[in-house]
Amino acid sequence: MKRKKAMLTKRRKKVRTADSESTGSLSFNSPKMDIPVVNFNAYKLGEDQIPDERLSVMTEEIKQAFSGTGFVYLENTGIEQQEVNRVMDVSKKFFLLPEDTKKLCARNSDHENFNDGWVSSEIERLNPLRPGDLKEAFNVSTIDSELKWPSDAAIPEFREVLDSFFRRCKKLALRVLEVTALCLGLERDFFVSKHRLIGSNKNCTTFRTLYYPPLHKVIVKPNQIRCGEHSDYGSVTLLFQDESGGLEVMHRSGQYISAPCIPGTVLVNIADLMQRWTSDVLVSTSHRVLLPPDDKMNTSRQSVAFFVHPDKDEIISCCDGSNKYPPVSALQYVTDRVDVSYENANKKNLSV
Fold first, then answer.
1. What number of other Cβ atoms are within 10 A of residue 277's Cβ?
2. Which residues pair with 75 in a beta bridge?
């Protein structure tokens, strides 16, 4: 009997996950590790002929992740690490420009594309119970918008690089939405059909390149961190991060666990509208970015996020036909959430 049990244990499938107590190491079957790493090779960008068996296995793994912690690392997506590095390199050049230069590209909350442009440090406050977040951002929601880009003389290739990566993220996001529909037994294009206008002024999907500046010369306020506790607003989010660390995700136990950088992967999470859309089958999870340890206060941190939203005119109702949540306008929902994040800045009439 003991020998039979040992054989069954040996055959048990290994689940690759990101170690919640490490700086990016991988392990197997540890109860402390809750964000799985799933191979997306079967549906990576450029791959169109997908055997049903491979797709079925991948879909089930992603469903378990999205209904558990709400987060999953996808590897072999078709987006290469050098592409991410290029975005971060050109973004850092922008963030290191003088503040007066960056102000020329500042976000204008009164514009139709209200989230586009540069956001200075401490203006956004994702947890209203904390001081402003210690981060800067440059937001792009409309590819062909009137967004004030930095000049080519100031940052050569900035617009070209961000524009190209926006399009790559859009393609991957649509594939993630297809898989998400299959996870729930829906038609493959169920969610994609509500995200047809990404990149236009009729959709709020936002690409954000984020910079967390060094803090050794900054007076950090009590209870202030780099990014306050929050959940994302829309459908799903794609996140690429450097190896500086600091990102934490709330575990179902209520404790926060580390979500380290795993080079070559994209960290994908469910956002609030998707949880609502799926009647809580898929879970949107709170996360945050902590301050670095004292001996690393002189180091910066970077990440690149693609926040996916349904088209503005979509009305989101529970996809199972229930009335667990009342229908809600996609545009009104995100507008209300963004307004809360910038509430303090709006009261002070600050756009940057």
1. 27
2. 39, 265
